[in-house]
Amino acid sequence: MGTIFKIALRNILRHKRRTVSSAVVIAVGITFYLYMDGIMLGMDRGGIDNVIELSFSAITVRTKAYESDKEAYPLKHGIENVSAIRQRLSGDPRVIGITPRTQFLGELSNYEKTVPIVGIAVDPSTDTAVFKLKRFMEGEYLSGKSNEIVLGRKLAEDLGVDVGGFITLYALTKYDSRNADEFRVVGVLHTTDPGLNQSTVLISYATADEFLDLEGLVTEAAVALERRVNLKDMIADAGEVKDRIVTSFPDLSATTFMEHSAAFLELAKGKRAFGVVFLCILLLIAGIGIFNTVLMSVYERIREVGVLRAHGMPPSHVMLMFAMEGVVTGIVGSLLGLLLGGLITWYLAVKGFAVDAIYSDSSIAGDLPYWGTIHAEWNIPAFVAMFIFGVLVAVLAGVIPARKAAEIAVTDALRFV
Amino acid sequence: MMKMKFLYLVLLATTGIAAIDGNEILKKMDLNRTWKSIVSTAKMEIIVDDEVRVKTMEISGLSEGNRSLVLFTNAEDEGTKYLMLGDDLWIYFPEENDVVKISGHMLKEGMMGSDVSYEDALEADKLSDKYDVAITGEEAYNGNDCHLLTLTAKGKDAPYFKRVMWVEKRRFIAWKEELFAKSGRKLKVAKVLEVKEIGKMWYPVKVEMINTLRKNSRTVFTTESISLDAPLDESMFTMRNLRR
Q1: In chain A, pLDDT over 70 holds for what percent of residues?
Q2: Which of A107, A212, A262, B165 to pair with B226, CA 20 to 30 A apart?
């Protein structure tokens, strides 16, 4: 066994070019796989993080009546007591913030044209604990003074207004009476969510109570949870907190970010299925490359096999020798692939990948929650799987042709040209 | 004696005019808007800058239950139908053979991108039910002597907080109307361009609506033919008929 391994090792060193080319093919295949896998996982997580931090929160609580009519953004079916929810969840270390919100439809006008918007009445003192919008703010956040407004950058550009300017907001009150008033733009949102940039305005409850006759109406409570590195833990947390809410408040409906993102996740699933097929093709090409390289080396060495057989080496030992060469080549190639793949993943995890730069002006951008800079995600099981795959392919690519070579009669092998 | 008689007549005439208070005017105006049923064909011109989009339609309506059916007949929207039952509106799209329900909120928005909301076009509420009225002056408008009325919402659910109307003294036609938000901002201006006498009513057959929040945007709604209070089959105003 030791002798065979020594012969295999000597063969590897003797045929440096062949060994290197086989290892490089394995390394390239694995590197590509790890790169693609990291990016795809990063896109999924980045999209979900954006949903949680910018537009939806981890859990949104509404009344059941509102939930069934939510597409119309009705100014009715309010949550009676947000502080009761806050009290119920107090002491849960996973819950880091709860804020009331009331969404409404309306239009912004600069008296030249009108643009439809989705407005959100917020409590500035608690909203920032749940949503990270301040991070993307030009100007200031709402202070609670009357008739202040924050709007998306695209909206501001469309209407030719900037921080410090004035704009007219039109909407229906809670009683379906039309109202319009002038607002001072205190902040412009340039987030990684095109939907927010294109159609969202924020006003404070102090203003909305007067402007929309809200009379304290709160249509939803947004709950923020501690961010978990592992998405599965985050999903589990959201599920458990949701259960606590709906058990304590049977009239309310709670939706987790996963339920809210169902369409996106379906899309992500489809994308991953496509990705897996793509990666399988990539690996198949890599496998054929390796197989071909090793096959060539085996056929080049049939006379050598004949000599070894003539010296009494049984076919099984010949096969073992080639298998060992494959294992060593596979290990070298796989390690190289893991190293390169790891370096790329590390770089993209730290520096990120600017998705919005690719399709910020695309019409599809509003439909897909892939925004801003996506950071690659580490997928350790994929690293392990790729190492095993690399070694396995190299071994199979060596053993199959070696088996054929070992079966050739010694005299034929010696005469083989 | 003659002098006394003259004074009496002046007094009578003065008290007679004063007797027509704002509510009386509203009631008379409401008479011009009150019908049991309506069948009409109409044209809506949506004018934005230099672009004009024309929608034509056939309208049937019953005031009882605030029911109406609108069938669009212009090439672009041919076969599209609106069915309004009370506060609910359904739209039938023939190409998709599908019906979409429009929520109460959307009824307040511009119909087919126009400056006329579904509610403006299809409302059958009496003004006197939703507004307090005051006569705030007199003014001639397009050669017609008009009362200047200011209507203020009685409750929070009136479509507009305040309405100012130029109402002709003789026929009680609201030739011009300005619609205001609670904040005091002017939202729309409606002008009657043409009226038609139908029985005892003066019906506005050509109306221009200007949305003051959009520059160079106005909608002209022209009723081309109209028949009031003719018997209508109630089965017209059903979901089944909408899909037919």
Answers
A1: 93
A2: B165
Domain with B103 in it: 23-243
Half-sphere exposure of A319 (CA within 13 A, CB side): 12
**Pick from A8-12, A49-53, A75-79, A270-274: least confident:** A270-274
> Is the same domain home to A172 and A69?
yes
* Residue A266 forms contact with B (CB below 8 Å): no
A170 pLDDT tier (thresholds 50, 70, 90): very high
The yes-or-no verdict on residue B17 having pLDDT over 60 is: no
Domain count, chain B: 1
Q: Does residue B11 belong to any structural domain of this protein?
A: no
Looking at the fold, whether A230 and A351 belong to one and the same domain comes out as no
When scoring B51, B102, B103, B105 by the number of chain A Cβ atoms within 10 A, the one with the most, hence best to mutate, is B105
pLDDT digit string, tens, across residues A101-135: 999 999 999 999 899 999 999 999 999 999 999 98
Q: CB–CB of B157 and A109 under 8 A?
A: no
- Residue among A109, A173, A177 whose CB faces B213 most closely: A109
pLDDT band at A306 (very low <50, low <70, confident <90, very high): confident
Yes or no, beta carbons of B104 and A107 under 8 Å apart: no
> Is A73 an interface residue toward B (CB < 8 Å)?
yes
In a domain, B153, yes or no: yes
Predicted confidence at residue B168, as pLDDT, reads 95
Closest alpha carbon to A151 in A111, A105, A118: A118
Give the CATH number for residue B126: 2.50.20.10
Please tell me the predicted confidence (pLDDT) of residue A300. 75
ipTM over 0.90: no
- Cβ pair A107, B208 in contact under 8 A: no
Q: What domain range includes position A111?
A: 57-260
Q: Grade residue A279 by pLDDT with cuts at 50, 70 and 90.
A: low
**Which long-range contacts link A232-235 to residues 24+ away (Cβ below 8 Å)?**
A234/A58
The first and second tokens of residue A96, run together, are 């880091």
Whether residues A281 and A199 fall in one domain: no
pLDDT band, residue A360 (cuts 50/70/90): low
Quick check: A179 contacting B, CB < 8 Å?
Answer: yes
Q: Which of A69, A74, A180 sits opposite B213 (nearest CB)?
A: A180
**Closest CB from B103, B156, B211 relative to A177:** B156
Looking at per-residue pLDDT, the higher value among A325 and B98 belongs to B98
Which of A69, A176, A178 lies closest to B187 in CB terms?
A178
Cβ <8 Å between B106 and A72: yes
Q: Sort out which chain B residues have CB atoms less than 8 A from A107's CB and list them.
A: 213
User: Do residue B104 and residue A176 have CB atoms under 8 angstroms apart?
Assistant: yes
Q: Do A177 and B212 touch (CB under 8 A)?
A: no
Tally of structural domains, chain A? 2
- Give the closest-approach CA distance of B157 to chain A in angstroms: 5
In tens, the pLDDT along A34-83 reads 888 888 888 878 888 888 999 899 999 999 999 988 888 899 899 988 89
Both A180 and A256 in one domain: the answer is yes
- Residue among A280, A356, A375, A297 nearest A32 (CA): A280
Cβ-contact B161, B186 below 8 angstroms: no
Quick one: A131 and A32 in the same domain? no
Hey, are the CB atoms on B108 and A73 less than 8 Å from each other? Answer: no
Q: Which of A209, A225, A260 is the last residue of a domain?
A: A260
Q: Which token pair is B171?
A: 């026929």
Query: For the residues of A336-399, what is the DSSP string, one character each?
Result: HHHHHHHHHHHHHHHT-EESHHHHTT-GGGGTS---SEEPP---HHHHHHHHHHHHHHHHHHHH
Contact check, Cβ <8 Å, A170/B187: yes
Q: Tell whether A30 and A12 lie within a shared domain.
A: yes
A206, A235, A260: which is the final residue of a domain? Answer: A260
Query: If phi over 0 gives left and psi between -120 and 50 gives alpha, with beta otherwise, what is residue B110?
Result: beta
